[in-house]
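Why this split exists: single-chain examples teach little about how molecules sit against one another. For that reason, every record in the complexes split bundles all components of an assembly together and asks for one structure covering all of them. Below is a record exactly as it appears in the raw files.
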Amino acid sequence: MSVATSSLPVGPAGEERDFIQSATGRFVSQRRVRGMGVFLLLLAVVMALPFGLNVPSGVSAIFTLTTPPSVTVPNLVQPVRAVSIGLAIACALVGVVLIARKSTRGSYLVFSFGTVLFLWSFLVWVGRGTSLNFVSLLAETVIYSTPIIYGSLSGVLCERSGVINIAIEGQFLAGAFLASLVASATGDVWFGALCGAAAGALFGWILAFLTLRYGADQIIVGILIDAFALGLTNFLLQEIFTNHPNLNSPPVFQNVAIPLLSKIPILGPVLFDQSAIVYGAAVLLVGIHLALFRTRWGLRVRAVGEHPKAASTVGIHVVSVRYGNVIFGGLVAGIGGAAFTVGSYGQFTSNMAAGLGFVALAAMIFGRWRPFGGLGAALLFGFSISLVSFIGVLGVDIPSPLLAMAPYLITIAVVAGLVGRVRPPGADGVPYERE
Amino acid sequence: MRLELDGITKRFGPLVANDHVDLTVEPGEIHCLLGENGAGKSTLMNVLFGLLHADSGEIRIDGTPVTFADPGEAVRHGIGMVHQHFMLIPVFTVAENVVLGFEPTRRFGWLDRRRAHAEVRRLSSEFGLEVDPGALVETLPVGVQQRVEILKALQREARLLILDEPTAVLTPQETEALFRIMRSLRDSGRSILFITHKLKEVLSVADRITVMRLGRVVGSTTPDEADEKSLATMMVGRDVELVITKTPASPAEPVLQLEQLSVADERGVTVVEDVNLEIRAGEIVALAGVQGNGQTELAEAIVGLRPVRSGVLRVEGADLTDATPRERIRAGLAQVPEDRQADGLVLSMSIAENLILDQYDAPPFARHGVRDLSAMRAYGARALSEFDIRAASADVPAGTLSGGNQQKVVVARELSRKVKVLVASQPTRGLDVGSIEYVHRRIVDARNAGAAVLIISSELDEVLALGDRVAVMYRGRIVGIVDPAVGRETVGLMMAGAGEVPPPPPAVNATLGPGDGS
């Protein structure tokens, strides 16, 4: 290092880049990138052998690419052996690129491309000798992802202001339950979803009240809310719905095809022929992103989450900001809960959130506390569930409980393996006390 | 603005932190509030800034009584504060930090970044505080971060600026730059309330000086009437010896050897790079540097609290690079950690327990895995008198002691062993003058008894007074090892990474006169 001539220490470029990278992006070590490369090479072996050479030549997989609103596209017929081996070679090349390149910039994108090649090959193998509706696989991915998107947005709202929201799971259950009850009773799905949101907001308020007013531990209160919501909804399920099943048969949001856009092949039915609750997630995603990073409100929220004392010295009321965000976060999670019942499935069933509240938190962390960051993880999980249900239908001889576990395993592997060094908001989970 | 504090009293339980404090700051003056740590300066400022509420007393601005429910109100009344620990959000840009709370917006609360940047540029050029509005604060050196704090206050049109211990984290050159800014702000008619415990700075920058001790104002003076000695006497309440008396070192064989040592911080960034250092028995090497240049990590690596990335660490020739802290203690290493409350003591345990933390499991304090509490208590009682620890008994929790007495407990424990190497980080930070004298004397005694001593301090006066040789660290490297006689200016420039490095002093029999302690 050369000696700086200025009286102020100005660091060498490399060191400053490190700081900036850890502030605004993921810190990726060279070793981790090489690990990704090696992993892709292993995937390539799987693709080449079991998916490729192991399959007799002449067997093909047919992907259906047309679903109603879109214009008709011919089916994609793929000879399994040739396609898998071709994909394996491509995947191996991507792996080699990762191992060989010097810069770590954009490694995640390159790696994601490699995994997409693997998934393609896997789908071809699964669909060998039969046909597979690729479009509805993706459309269901979006539907399954929706509650997770709401959940991770809820987490972003709370944690950006410095409160950890472990209660998303409980807010899901409360929202799902009340949405089903109210929508069944009134016949109005919008009113049902609204009440689901209110139920989530109420649980958000409880979290805020106990942690902000009394300084209770955020994790413990969150877990208690989860346990309480599970017990309460199970109890009410038995007490009310068993005797009055008509109160648990709500109408559901109907798909609304967006003119023109829904006609686009493949993408149309996947993205533009969905229900209001799916569109709502997209709107909130964009809205919360802009609000957090472009408005005065967002600047203050982030200030409170990073350094509440500094925020307070410029006249920002830390506790009010946190109250607002935790309740808003609860509301968003409540809509996510409503997505389980009036958004897709209809009926409320016991423990129907099934840990997705925690998956949403994982997605948020994976996404570095940014609204769009969590989207990828949410879609991955949705895709895994969707895939598992497809495999179930195709009748692959894997025990179904094992299959049901797969989405969680995939999420753990991806989130733990790829999450790298992330930095939460500075005061995340730290109670604020005035001196 | 003319600010009057009249009879401000603030109690915390039985403790009276401010006892009928009167203070008047005239428009266009730099008013120094001088006092030791714990004298009640920070409490007074927090009352003034609306962070605390006085139990009694009145604040008047230009003759009108005011009350501040929160800092926002103080700001609206034209009071700005630069806190000792910056109130900046590290991941925000300079402009975002400056406008936070007073953001220029367009419709729907949409942030107007362009106006925010323009505002920062306007203020920077108006007051000569150069800074890039788009830079992320955490990437800036502390001196620049401090400018951002000042800009923040100016953006709010502060007419009175409170600077709480602003020089603690600055190099001497940055301190000079800050003083120039303070003078130009004063000349533009603003008042400045400058809080410090550094006598030299008070004399060079103040128009008037108010001295606090134990929560009370004990006197008021001007730099023309006062000198360092009279200020110190007012501050402490008795005559203070400002020099460290020590005989010239007579270094013997090398004890602590660092070879090409590199250490990484939590983020994996290398913060200590290829450090070579050799300390001999019977000498004190003082490590100077602005905070955050790797000194903390280097000290932690030496005592075994942080892994070494590469290089070798030897004590008396034995390789201890990968040794556990316990193995290092057995090899004769002792440490006074930078944060005594976090790393030096278990605050909830008694003084006696803290005194034997390094040997609680060995005779006479334990036999066959069973502790001998009476042996521990007897030892504790002896240590209280031997090390002048002021406490009701050795059974009271260490957390109830004052900072000075806590440090004495740490020193007592560490120096009760046979010490070959002593690593002391910021050994007198936050201590009263009496305790500082005591700790310094103990360190010199350890040296005279043949220990190799490494002192890490951000107080330049302490470095120059205690060190037999002075090593300067900048950006993770030792940029030079000099004789303390080269003076403040030279060492200060080296700390800023600039300036010529004088040739190293002869390692053996380096001599020097007494320094001028802080």
